Batch of 2 targets.
Target 1
Amino acid sequence: MENEFNRLKAEADKFPMPEECEENDRAVRFLALETGVGHFDNLNLLIMSALFIFVSVAFLAVNSGKIINNDEELTLNRKSFLSGEFTQKLEERYLRDLPIPEEMKTAREYAALLYGIGNKVTEKNSGNYNTRSDSQPDYEHNAFESDDDDNGVSENKVTTKAAKTDKNGNTVTEPEEAETAPGGGTTAVSRPSSTVSTFSYTTEPEEENTVTLNNDAPSVTTTTTVISKRTVTTSESTDYTETQPTESDITDSSVSDTDPPDTETSETEPVITEPPVTDVPAE
Amino acid sequence: MTYTDLIFLFGLFPVSAVLSLLDRSPEYKNMILIITSLLFFSWGRPFAVCLIFLSLFADWGIGLAVGSLRDKNRLAAIALTAADGIIALAIMLIFGHNYLFSETKLALDAVLLPVGMGYYALRGGSYVYDVYKGKIRAEKNVFCLMTYEVSFHLMCAGPVVRYGDIEGQIRRREVNTDKLNAGLNRMIWGLGKITVLSEAFAKIHAAGMNGNEITTLGCWLGMLAFFAQYYFMFTGLCDMSRGLSLVGGFVLPENYRDIEPDELFTGLVKSYNTTVIGFFADLTGTSESRSKLRTAIGAVICGGLVGLWYQVSVSALLVGLAAGLLVALEQLFLKDILAKLPTVVKYIYLVAAALLIFGGAEFRSFSGYHRWLLGLAGIGTKYTLSVAVKENVLQNITLIIIAFCVICTPVRRMITGGADRLSAKSRRHYGAVRAAKTIGTAAVFIVSVLTLAAAASV
């Protein structure tokens, strides 16, 4: 047996056997990693599944505490199902019952702090959430359609003021007291009766301003007016009209001069007088 | 119902996934899939169920007839295929592009309109067309065809899967942990693309393309944001679709692939919604043609058809034709000239061509497009940058950087390649990279859910 073994060994020595090569090492490392892949994949799957199940159960089982009226009770019958009413109400109820809605909004705002610079978190439990930002942009998207629509320019049409930076690269800064529309566009305000869209937001805890945009406006007219809600609702009070000094290189003075001050008179509402068109000055 | 509805994500989808895991037989899985898909499709719109059944049985019956007639009576087979094509076209126009009938009796309330009718019609039409071409056999089992046509995996977005590619999976498929893991990850990243990235670019787009404050940088950034918004929306939906399919055991083809500068504009076009373009290229005979001229003509026609498929309007048709024309020119002679240019120049060419051609899809009138073109050069604009654009860019600057890394192929490959090299060093490094991926995916999931819930909660 020993001789046989020696004979085989001698025969094997005649052929050059490969050393432990780099490929071999790599293959061993790959196999080790493959084993790890399985572990980490399972761990990943476990975590994601747990998250999914947790959220699904929480959204179904945890109630927001809002009271559901009896007349909104779901009734499944042929008519309600075929009309889509049943599924619609079911979804409404599901969304209404989402747990801790205010906390989720706050958490979303905190998450948005990571998105970039200048995001803010509103005061907790104030109910003053940034409702304007998510699904509806601050500006009506018109992709330059206004030029066709503005042939017959209405006297009520105004526009948002455009920019902070002029073509020469000079920064046109807004004064601190200038009102800003939601989203940062400088204020454009018109008569409430002639509005296209209205944003309401609270700048002070007990004071509400109404900022109104009419996006059909010609791009030359810029008006800055701030209307306090209190003054609008009280007929004897005076509107607070904010007029900024004019700077010649920004303000389109010809427009200002040609546009007469708009005045609307109502028996029940206060007289709202707009000043000549002005732009917010630089500096 | 859509993929981003909370009631789907955390109601219907988990129920469907769990129920289909209870039994291994494909018949059972198909049954669960059909039931949940019909619920998905008809949510709030039961009328849509009737539509599905009518068109589905029409496809099934016509498919069988075409299958038996194509060898015996070619003309009858052609007529039947054309009839099915007309049915598919009618469904797509009436339910997918109902705005065309806004003042007619066919006008429907938007609430009643089912989702994804463009893709649905393509699936039905492509099935009968493939039977006619002899690529597949006519399906005798109506439930297999039903699984293919109504599956919610394929409902909202591409890829447009041909029946021949998925028939085997309908009859036999298995769900394992690898598929579940990959599917959930892909779905979550797709959700993040839609809810976070696409929304961020939507704001910049709206601010930049606001006709009331046209600025030079607004024109550039607004249009780039327009592209990014829809890129992330479509790729996100497609990722979700593929992820959902993986969880259900299906493996679908890629619908969006990396943009390679060497492939020029032709590659750019083909990288976006690849399966839809492939279908129309097949329909026009472009993919099989060996003649350069015929391919070029087919590319123009195909471009027009794809444009109309997206939206039935003059601007969409013109955009499609223009894209097809540039592809045709590349096929004829431009490719040889442009191929010699450096990579950076090719990228500039791609961005410029995409801006000029696909930018037209944003405008409904030529005057708007003209104003935008002038605005790009600073003509007719009073200011360089508006407050709204600046603030929206700054408020989303982190997301913009992330989006750039996702879209820009060389940067993304550098990052993923670095991660791969790091994980190959040792098991510990590998674990660290995998843990980081898991944490990242979980973070995207949480942020997406918070965003959706905050927006949806009453």
Target 2
Amino acid sequence: MIFEHTHFRQALQLSPFHERIAALSKTENWTSWNTYKVPRVLDKLSTEYFAIRSGTAVMDLTPMEKYRISGGDAQEYLDRLVARDISNLRPGRVTYIVWCNDDGKLIDDGTLFQLGDNDYRICAQHHQLDWLLMSAAGFDVQVELETDNVAALAVQGPTSYSVLSEAGIAGLEHLKPFGIHDLHCGDIPVTVSRTGFTGDLGYEVWMQPSDALAVWDAIFAVQGRYDVHAMGLDALEMVRIEAGFIMPGFDFNTAESTVRDGYDRSPYEVGLGWVVNLDKGHFTGRKALQLEKTQPGKRRLTKIVVDGNKPVGEAFIYNGKNGKQVGEIRCTTWSPILKANLALADIDLVNGKLPSDLWARFDYQRELKWRTAWAACRAQAKPFYNPEHRSATPPARF
Amino acid sequence: MTSRTDAIIIGAGHNGLVCATYLARAGLNVVCIEARDSAGGMSAPRTIADDYHFPGLAQASYPVSSAIRTDLKLDRFGYTPGRAVQTIALDSAGRNLSIGAESISGDSVPDADAAAYPVFRRQYLEFAKALRPLFDNKPPRLKDMPFADKATLLKLGWNIRMGLGKEAMYELLRIAAINIYDVLNDTFEDDRLKGAIAADAIMGSAMGPRTPGTVLTWLQRIEGELNGPLSLQSGGRTQLVHALTQSAEDAGVRIRLAARVEKILVDNGKAFGVRLTGGEMLKARTVVSNADPRLTLGSLVGPRLLDTMFANRVAQIRGPGVVAKLNLALAGKPEFNGLADDLSGERLLIAPSMKYVERAYNFSKYGEYSDQPVLDIAMPSMHNSGLAPDGHHVMSVNVAYVPYELAGGWDEQKTALAYKVISQLGTYSPNLKSLIVDHEFLTPQDIEDQFGAVQGHWHHGELSIHQSFMMRPLHGAAQYDTPVERLFLCGAGCHPGGGLTGLPGRNAARRILALGGVK
């Protein structure tokens, strides 16, 4: 067999949906995600944002790192890999996971799909093949990188259930959040999971790359009756902050890419202590996390609402106006639906507690003139935006 | 078990016995579990053809440190270092060279070498002495260094700077990481002398004279000379392991033979005992392993109970065994070309030049062996006539470099290699072949099977710079404790490494007691 290696001719790979996405791109505003060419914005950011929050937005998920984990020890392997107790996971279910290095520092987060007995898929933000293989020593397990072999679409928004049903995918009414069903789109086999990164009602549709265009076309065929838009990464950034989802590598340094001592982060430090189960048995990083748990926390990635409507951008956080600098904003967005400045900020704790009087000091431009402003910040534990329709089963029909 | 056990020591090799005895003398209830049917590990006696006894795999050694001798009352239990031996660099034509502690002598020794030798020896013993604080203590942690580690480094720094003086310090820093080949070529002319010293530097390691770090391996070896002269193992009651066994039992250590540990039991990150082949479980507050760290962590604990990066580092420990052992039962005394009769009890070396040694090494890199191996020969029966029937002898030969994994496998080639070694010996000792009553040949594979040393490596892991000091056996377990709580290492795989020194065992015991985790 002769392999045609042509990837080096292109700086970026084209996803199986690219033909359709390129046709919709009016701005030609492209970027790279995991070596794939993906749109930041196709037309107008606001159109894409509101499609997610009040209609249906479709995003190409193919570039997401996907790994198939199989073999007799698959569960034991995953148990040792991730910090969460996954013993309750069953075929047809998805769970959110994080994994750490020996020092209990986060390497990445992702979703774990149990597709069958001893058959799992990990979707990760970053390339993890080396770590997953290194972790496989001593286990009867196969780890396969399948990013290019599985095409996927995120179909998200309040009307996404109706859109997918109208597009010919029957049987979604019983699919609960974090569930997986093997279904058909017309006569094309697809796997649908009720998962997403938008904090809204939404699905992820998984298929053979050869079926990609047909499934896309079926979904966009309902466009006249429903508000269906392709979306890019910029709109995703807005909604994921509203939903309080964090991005490894952006909101914190991932352990294996951190050079300086202390610049990496543990799950507790980014608010992911809820996916760490110290009493589940051994997993990589457990000993370090056990030790960390006995000491007062040093810092916490915190959801904050910044008063006012000036664009906050990158900013320092202070304990008290003109007080001591205690943190930095990692990501921020203006939320059109909440009419608020939202941010995730890395804030130093004082005796294990969040300082009570948080202020952001930031610079902004008014007609090119730079100004400095102070704005009070309110920390909150819950997601900024978490609508009820997100988790209703069956979802409302439109 | 009827009584409560504080510590289980896995492996009754000499380091296991040293560690066990220290712990028992500190008041702990200690059980030492040994897979073989005698204590002593690689220095346990072996017998072939019924009447021919060998002191063990170890042939020549320096005395153990006076601290260990005193602490464990070894002299009271009969320990007597053997008589000092010279090293004789054999020459096939009989132009042999005698290498003593202070001088060299023999056919046509260059005057320059005769003058340079004692100076060179003194300097390197000074270097070894300067490094002593490092060998005698647990290796210092570099991060969050406790006071004891700072003291070690201070002593080391003082020794190197003030003890050696500026010139010598520069010289030590110059040679510490380089190869013995360059150093010897800079110092000497005589090929026999250079070959013999180089053979000492590489013996037991998968390194050639040109491999960087071979000055360090040589320093680690001659460090023992600070305790006394080199002597041959000759078996019997004066032997180290015999005295150690007595001392251990006297201290209350229970030695259980013919019991193989199959698994170290770990619950919730803490070791709490061992499971033997056959299923018996023994519990203890602390488990101490004298086995190869690769075996201890990689198999007895297993990667599943270790963190990914640590397990990966365990799997990456470098330590391919490259020394085979040939034991010969002889019907008489072999004669070596040009060797005076009264010298056949000395240590004999076939390593006629550094190029010879380097060439022999080359083959092992590719899973092959050389027709001209480096041979380190001892006749223990010259020191203890009880080892063989009247007028008969036993000869023990370390054969370097024999690869652990031989291209084409060992099954059919083992005997062929033994004959090749015998044939090479025959070049130096024409009557040897006719005297052979029986032989035993142990490849690195056999040494692994019989002694648990992974890949048959003498030192349970190469003594290379990246696996020495605070990186021995590996980062994360370099102070005898491991990521598994209450599991400690005490064997040759630990700092300061292999050889019949007992230092890893002693350092480990002190560490275990200092951590107070056993009561």
